[in-house]
User: What shape does this take?
Amino acid sequence: MNLYRIEKPFVFSIFGASGDLAKVKIFPALYDLAAQRRLPKEYVIFGYSRTPMSDEAFRKMVEKSVKGKSTLPMNQKILDELIRHMFYFSGQYDKPGSYNEFASKILLKTKGRKLTHLTYLAVPPQVFTKISKNLARIRPKIGEDLRLIIEKPFGHDEASAREIFHHVSMDFSSDKIFLLDHYLGKDAVQSILVLRYANSILNTLLNGNLISNIQITASEDLSVANRISYFDQVGIIKDMIQSHLLQMLSLLTMELPVEQKSESIHREKFAVLSALKYRGYEKGMVIGQHESYKNIEGVKKASWTPTFAAIRLFIDRQDWYKVPIYIRTGKMLKKKHTYVVVEFKKHAFQEKNNLIQNNKLIIELQPDQKIHVKLYTKTGGASSEYTDLTTSKSIACFGDDCLPEHGRLLLDVFQSDQSNFLTFEEIIATWKFTDKILRCSESKKVKLHLYEDYSDGPSQQDALTKRDGHHWHDVPLQKK
Ligand code: NDP
Assistant: This one.
């Protein structure tokens, strides 16, 4: 892999620089870019938040978080060099005066030049539009190439997402807005499209007429570590399904765009996301909460928040409308494993032969990144048994130029490439669908099943697949 190197000087500002996202993801991603020598000689990075802090204290905070979180080998010289480019500005998010002062500070550091400027909104969604409005106001002073990176969650329902988009798009054109879901920066997620482009046989098979069902599983063996107040408000459906898992589903089931260009990709993704259908009301889902959830500090004793959800859905498009798609995700399950299973149909004449299994395409996303194409054969001799002829290859990035998700996605922003970001239309479509599921899950007609910590989740999930004559596929984790 040979990723892009940034040549031109730039400014990078992180709003909410005192917070968790900045420490856990953004500072380490900037270090990763520096460590791979992808940054130019000249650049300025600002942390902006309300907390009073000196440049010195900010740099210490950055150093500590990079050392705790970067996955690349630590090189103190590179880190020192990065930190020399970093400054802190303490300002309000809603006060024009703060932004005027900020603009002066930027111009001081850039010696009056109006450089490409990436701004990362690492703040809660209720602050997004205050920042975008004020940034747009100072844009003539600091430069027109002002790009806005906004990380999921984009609101908490369709109406709040529309509200954010309405305001943000009054101030920024869509080519300057980068709506980030970090799942789309994962190698294995990006490889779904790569696989489809590179293998016409595989792509031909990804056709609803040939597929029996699709299953997406994203299980965690931990509860919600450090973001419990956020999680307890939103629950697993908004946290995992609304964006991460539906985005993956769209990459797998959309028509293959003729051109590998952002516009074509988004056109096809939207066609799928806007055709998602939830049928079956309370019978189409199973939700659960792990046993020890209410003992976590910060969780309300009466919390109804699901930590597990399994959903049966459909895509209302010509080839797909009969293919059940099952999505399940949960916290505190027996293993951490994210994978997709596409199960193909048997020919009618094979159906009675129980010795033959359905062919499967399995994409593992974490912890391993692997693709398996499950074919079956007999190995000769008199045995009547079919054996599993599996091709399984790690597709994890290997070598010196691998980057975790945020680093990769930042490089895309520098290149103005929107392919691995979301569009407003896609987000509204996924919220429309998610709101329907949520209305159902919150109606109390759906029972919240308690499940044992480190188990497979509520056993009731089996009924979802069984009603179509299927069963969940548990893909074993491979030993290292
Ligand atoms: P934080 O709660 O840590 O907030 C970030 C900073 O924003 C705070 O340090 C604070 O800075 C400021 N802030 C917090 N609450 C408010 C408020 N009500 N009004 C104005 N300013 C506020 O959030 P995170 O850093 O965890 O996340 C930022 C965004 O990114 C959120 O939308 C989150 O859901 C999302 N996200 C976070 C991830 C993570 O791993 N943390 C992962 C994926 C998405 P100050 O007071 O100094 O101004």
Remarks:
- The pocket of NDP is lined by residues 16, 18-21, 24, 49-51, 93, 122-125, 127, 151-153, 227, 230 (CB under 6 Å).
- The mean pLDDT is 92.
- The longest strand covers residues 211-219.
